[in-house]
Amino acid sequence: MDDKKTIMGGGFFRKEEKPFIDKMSDILLKAQNMYVPQLTEFLNLREQTILNNLINKYDDLYVHYFGGFSGAERVRGIIAPSYFTPVEADYEITMYEIRHPEKFANLHHGQILGSLTGSGVERDRFGDIITDGENWQFFVFKSLDTFVEEQVKKIGPYKIHLIKKGFNELLLPKDESVDDTISVKSLRLDTIVATVYDLSRQTAKTLVDHGKVQINWVVNKNASSFVTMTDTLSVRGYGRIRVNDIMGKSKNNKYILSVNIIKK
Whole-prediction pTM value? Predict the structure, then answer.
């Protein structure tokens, strides 16, 4: 479990992030006025960064994060006064393991994600989906246990069975991503996509124009949109890019970015 100083940076806010900022501001005020802990939905890295920036205005409030395991990307936050130290149970998270016909089924992340959202579960109600290369687990609101067990019976064409597991039975997640450092002339969305996946700017722009690129899981059709720290870019057919850091500029005036890349 991490506190508010774990993930910082990215003070730039987008217009489309205003509803989330307003929601978190209301929760912060509630925590301050009522002086009791407040639990958030699952937050992605960008949302965590926004919350960290907002909470720094409150000297008497802290945010603690947990997503089912150390290093989880999607986590729930507990916003609380300094007197409160949360335990795992306070985050109200259930972990499920997916039992499926291993000889016939080759599950993948997109199938599982689609089955969960297709069942009616909002994206902010469940956390990471992890695999050790053979088995799969995911994390969801504890309050949705019964609903998920009743609604999620198939993933793709395969019948599955969900088994509730304790956090001590966590799989060792298989990480197929790589860290890299790239140099770009600008922080435009199409420029970063083109650089990471070795595409022409026009090809990258076409992907964006056709709605095949997301910033933080929201489709963005503006190729000139600026990318900032802790943004996650999803490029259909290519993979995912997480911007870990903007480390400054090189001698030839290019931005130097630390990125984490998943290639499909």
Answer: 0.85
